[in-house]
Amino acid sequence: MQVPINILLKLRLYLVAFLRYSALNNGNNPAILSPPTTLCFDDKYAFRSTAGSTTAALIAILHSVTDRLSTNPFVVVLALDLSKAFDTVRHASLFCKMALLNVPDPVYNWLVDFFSDHEHCTSFGDSVSAYQPISASIIQGSAIGPVSFVVNASDLSTVTPGNRMHKYADDTYIRYSCLQRSDQGS
Questions:
Q1: Where would you tag: which of 68, 73, 168, 175 has the fewest CB atoms within 10 A of its CB?
Q2: What is this structure's pTM?
Q3: For residue 106, what pLDDT band results from cuts at 50, 70 and 90?
Q4: Under DSSP, is residue 11 helix (H, G, I), strand (E, B) or coil?
């Protein structure tokens, strides 16, 4: 039995949407609500199913800064924009982190299959390069892409206790306190 390609593509889109909203959704899934200690989703604000994630991120950063200013004379917020962040996600690293989550085996296997066996070539004029396998990047515009990026960035954390990190999509804000030097000459 042959199934028309447009039906297969629609089925794939429905499956991706199902995975995004039920199997990996950070609002409903125990896999992300109870992650292993090596992964943290508390400091990530983008791609949430609830409205107001931008507002929540701004409030969290503001609260973090004002809280530190109550006990420290200076607070620094370092803003990082991870340029091309979605293009740098290594599939092997993503799969290792996904394996730590309580994701059902068929879902995990489907995700591995979803990211596998993609190739790229470059054409210029009449020349076309040889196809090369893609072992990094998240497919832009896919429903599973943002969740995959969140999982991939979940182990990014501060090293020094007391410092705080806030992540919003591919932007990261690190808040740390510093003390004023009383004597600059000695």
A1: 73
A2: 0.63
A3: confident
A4: helix
